[in-house]
Design a protein that fits this description.
The chain is α/β, with parallel strands linked by helices and about 240 residues long. About 45% of the residues lie in helices and about 15% in strands. The chain folds into two domains: about 40 residues, no CATH class; about 200 residues, no CATH class. The chain has seven helices and eight strands; from the N terminus they run ααββββαβββααααβ. α5 packs across α6. The longest helix is centred in the last third of the chain and has 38 residues.
């Protein structure tokens, strides 16, 4: 690689912008040491970062961190953003709350986080922060129920990765990562809305065929409409 790079630099004394970028990228790869940080893990996407997960079955990942906020009961995605630099999770919490307030128009009263957010403040303005590293005996039954409900965001993350292409980004650069994260959250919400719409349509067709009387809605429809509540005031 070094010989090819030097040969190209001799033959192209005044490279263009694209070729100069490739030259600098190749020099970075040649000068890297084993103990260096911020290595180049991908030629076509040099912004890819090395992230240690700490899990036995999958210890490392390559990409960038994505912060995700969902509602407490219905699991609507109200904030999603890709953050580069591999920051500590607790340093992204305020940014996530601000994005939620900007998108929805209201500020959450309670936020429930996992142990990766240890060290954050107990209160951020009007928002109370609750962590999962608490014992059951030290909490009331209601508080413990809300704290256990935080695990509901895990299947949301799985659906975002498998159904809305959050696991692999095909857009370019840092902005492409952010766009992909936001569109994945939007796609998740749209799928929920479509399911509610088609469920309403099926109930309506079934009720219309069973009861030709017009002018009133079928009994199951009330439950369907109540399931479409968007925001509850508590976030995970």
């Amino acid at each position: 690689m070094g010989r090819v790079l030097r040969d190209l630099q001799r033959k192209c004394p005044k490279p263009g912008e694209v070729l100069q970028h490739l030259f600098s990228l190749a020099n970075r790869i040649l000068e890297e040491k084993k103990v260096d940080h911020h290595k180049v893990y991908s030629i076509h996407a040099p912004e890819v970062e090395y992230i240690s997960k700490g899990e036995v079955h999958k210890r490392y990942e390559f990409g960038c961190k994505v912060v995700l906020v969902s509602t407490s009961k219905e699991n609507w995605v109200v904030a999603a953003d890709a953050i580069h630099g591999n920051p500590y999770d607790g340093h992204t919490l305020e940014q996530s709350i601000e994005q939620t307030e900007r998108v929805t128009g209201w500020r959450p009263s309670d936020v429930y986080c996992d142990r990766g957010y240890r060290g954050v403040k107990a209160e951020m303005g009007e928002t109370k922060v609750h962590l999962t590293n608490k014992r059951k005996g030290s909490l009331t039954r209601s508080a413990w129920r809300w704290l256990r409900r935080r695990a509901g965001i895990e299947p949301v993350i799985g659906h975002l990765k498998s159904d809305t292409r959050l696991d692999r980004n095909y857009l370019l650069g840092d902005e492409g990562d952010r766009i992909n994260a936001i569109l994945s959250g939007c796609g998740f919400n749209v799928r929920k809305l479509l399911r509610a719409f088609f469920l309403f349509l099926l109930f309506w067709l079934d009720f219309d065929s069973a009861n030709p009387t017009k002018g009133r809605l079928p009994p199951p429809l009330t439950g369907v409409l109540l399931k479409c509540r968007l925001f509850q005031g508590r976030l995970f």
